[in-house]
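REQUEST ID: PR-0412
SUBMITTED BY: lab tech R.K.
PRIORITY: routine
TASK: structure prediction, single protein chain
INPUT:
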Amino acid sequence: MSNEKKHISRTKKIRHRRLQYSFRISVLFVICGLIVFLFPKIENFKYSFQKGMLWKYETLNAPFDFPIHKTVEELKEEVEHIRREQPPIFVFNANVLPGQLKQLNERVNRFRTGKNEAQINQFVEKFKEIYEKGIILMPTQLSEKEVKSVLIIRDNIAREEKMEDVYTLKKAYSTLTDFVNSLALGKSTKENLTGVNLNDMLKSNLDYDASRTEAAIENSVKKISPTQGMVRQGEQIIANGELVTAEKYKLLNSFRIEHEQDLGSTSDKVKITIAQTILTLIAMMSFSLFLYYTRKRLFYNNKDFFFLHSMFLLTVALASLSYYQHWNIFAIPVLFFPIIVNILFGSRAALYLLLGISLLVSYYAPNNYMYVFMQISGGIVAIFSLSHLQRRSQLFIALGAIFLTYTLVYGAFTLIQEGTLRTQQLFPLVFLMINTLLLSLVYPVLYLVERLFGYTSEISLLEFSNPNHPVLRQLTKKAPGTFQHSLMVANLAEEAIYHIGGSPLLARTGALYHDIGKMYSPLMFIENQTGGLNPHGNLDFDESARLIIEHVTKGVELANKYKLPESIIDFIRTHHGKSKVKYFYYSYKNKYPDNEVDEAAFTYPGPDPVKKECAVVMMADSVEAASRSLEIKNEENLSKLVSDIIDTQLREGRFANADITFQDIKHVKLVFTEMLVNVYHARIAYPKLQQKSQPNT
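STATUS: complete
OUTPUT:
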């Protein structure tokens, strides 16, 4: 029967293991399929080239005729030229002249006589002539000096006029004034004519039509040819070892554009899809192998495995926006998810994720080498500047460092390719700044991730480790001795984790909460007992053991009540593991040697620790409690105590499932011993003052 149970148990384990591996394989292939779906199904150009570098491939001859595409700068210059040369469009308003002419006649009729009537009529005709030519009021967005001609629409017929053939208000006023002075009139009559308030009489009758002007510009822009000249089949594009100059770069880029525009047949697309699948799987499986060999806990945890690999999909989905929505890829915050992984899982996982996604996302970048260099450089800066995020200001300092790294990499590559830095070449820095600003959204997104997946960042741990947290305040009031014990355990665990690697803040926070269950019966624990009163003297050994063990389950209940994260609750569950309450266990066996002992009644529910931080807190908890009862607290005794306790836990298998090595445990012993010696350091005995005998008088 025993063998049959073992066989059933082994079969269940094998089945469970197969299901686990099936889940991971399914996650890999589903995410891979979605990523490949997002990739454009075009044949990538097989040559990589940069301005200022030597052509490292064989001599390249044109395999077919193709046009030479203009550069972005050339197209922009043509657009600017069109904008400069396009005459602004004005609409002739025929309703202005009648009203202004009526006012003018009313004013000049006051001094019109038979002698001057002919000259005054000439003045009125000149007034009408100016209006017929058109009086223009140039809008603020246009400069009179730059505008050479205007397009005037009159009776739905457009004609182009030079600027000198139309009138501005100033020019119209001076023309009329000069005309009056040229007339054969007396001085008083001339003064009367110029005194009719010509400024009030003159009003623009050419209205600027911004929409028609812009439409004309857009129509001309559409007619711009994206190409100039042709390369014929068989012509040499570039020779092996030749420098990629600006002109050669233009030819190569034109060849690349024409090559990629030829989408090919369905069979070609299938081949491209297969190749993209292979590359994506290699990137993701490399990351999985890293987890398997260095972070097994993350590899075997389904939630963590899915979350980490979904980062590939989310990042590629972001990058795909640059391709399908025609956004500048520099504006895409590729480091967004590696930063979140860095905060939640540490720098190594984030670094391997960064390498994988940088290689995949570079598929969308026109300048692959520069883009990968830029993202990996910026990512390394981000990862190591945020390795222990304990202040919110750290993120903004890191963002500044990321932008500086981006700028330096872009500037260096631009100098290599162009040989100089011109103003228009610095425009991509605007997109890099947008990229960096979008990274500041890490905080709100991190909060959502913590709530959805149950993760705990160091920012949250800082909040939980605050002594003013309601649970810790209760612990201070109800079980002050336990709180002091927890503080000492926190100090020991934090220092040990600093030395062996891990999250010191997680170890400290978990240690502060590990004994909160003692608040329910504080006097049952020796650190809270005063006056020599020990309630266990009136209880049976198994009842005492039950009350002691209960602080673990009660602690978990209290933690759930206050919605503490699972990462902290793990410390409450595991700080005793599946060990026994040895004092009462051995006392029971000694008192009742003939009775069969119920082992479960004296054993903590566990489980044993898995995380390195939980294992260290288990060691610190036992060592700190035992050190209080040590009579002579010198270095030798403390060192022996630390070694004996931790070695006993090791023999009992308490750390069998923990990701901690023998070398780590060795370092932990040394740290604990050093700290306890410092805590219980020997004090110098001050000499007593001896009273001198008074001389006999």
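NOTES: Strands lie at 60-61, 66-69, 89-92, 135-136, 149-154, 157-162, 167-168, 206-208, 227-231, 236-238.
REVIEWED BY: pending
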